[in-house]
Amino acid sequence: MKDKVFDKPIEKKFEFDEAVASVFDDMLSRSVPFYDEVRQLIISVILAEEGEGKSLLDLGSSTAKFLLDLDSKLSTKMHLKGIDNSQAMLDRARQKCQAFGAEIDLELADMLEYEFGGDDVIVSNYTLQFIRPMQRPELVKKIYDGLNQDGIFIFSEKVVFEDKRLDKQLIDIYYNYKKAQGYSEYEIAQKREALENVLIPFTIEENIQMCKKAGFKQVSTLFQWANFVTFIAKK
Transmembrane residues, as ranges (predicted)? Predict the structure, then answer.
C-alpha cells in the first residue's frame, strides 16, 4: 500500500500506529535513501558472521521485513527474534511470517525495559533516534552487556552535523530526494512537523562515542548517504 499518511493535516505527533503500519514498507523504501541496499549490506555482514545456533535480535522489528529477508538467505540455523512496541506492526509482522512459513520470534516489548542477554548480533535500523537522548546511552550499555563475547551491534541512524551550513544543505538534498520519490512539499512539511521532538538525531561522533563509552572496542561506519549512516560496533 502506498504511503499517504501525511497528505492531510496532522492531528498528532508521529507514532507507529495502524495507519503507519499499513504503509510502513513503502514509507521506508521511499523515505530512507538506499534503504533496500543498506538492508542487504547488513544482511551480508551478518552472513559473514553466520554460525549454527547463533542468535540475532532486531530492535524495532516493525513488519519483520529485515528479519524475513535475512531468514531467506541463511544457510545455517540461526535464532531470529524481533521486538517492537507497536501492536499494529507486530500484527502485520506475524501475518507475513506465517505467509512465508518463517520461524521468527516476535514480541511486544519496550526496548528500554527489555531484558537483553544471549545474543550474538543485535540490529537497530532507524530506531535509536526515537529514544530520548538522555535514555539512549543507558540503552546502548544494556545492548553491550546483553551481547555475547565478540558480539556485534549494527545500527542505522539519521544524523546531524555540527557544521550548520552543511547540515542545512544536506537536509535540502534529502528533501529533494523525497520529492523525487513522489512526496509532495505538503507531505514533507507535515511529516517534519509530526516528527519534531520525536525523532532527535545525534552527530556521527556522538553515536560513536556513545558506543565506546558503553564498552564497545571498535566502532565503524558501514555506509553513509548525506545524513543517513549505518554503524557497526564490536564487543
Answer: none
- The verdict on whether residue 61 carries a ligand-binding annotation is yes
- 62 in a labelled binding site: yes
For residue 201, being part of any structural domain is answered with yes
d(CA 38, CA 35): 5
**Dihedral angle computed from the Cα positions of residues 235, 51, 115 and 216, in that order, rounded to the nearest 10 degrees:** 10
The answer to the question of whether 227 is labelled as a binding residue is: no
Find out whether 39 is annotated in a ligand binding site. no
Q: What is the pTM of this model?
A: 0.87
Domain extent at residue 125: 18-234
Total domain count, the chain:
1
pLDDT tens-digit map of 66-108: 999 999 999 988 999 999 998 888 998 999 999 999 999 999 9
Q: What CATH number corresponds to the domain at position 185?
A: 3.40.50.150
Does 35 carry a binding-site annotation?
yes
| Cα dist from 115 to 43, 64, 139, 142, 151, whole Å | 24, 20, 11, 8, 17
**Element containing residue 167 per DSSP (H, E):** helix 164-180
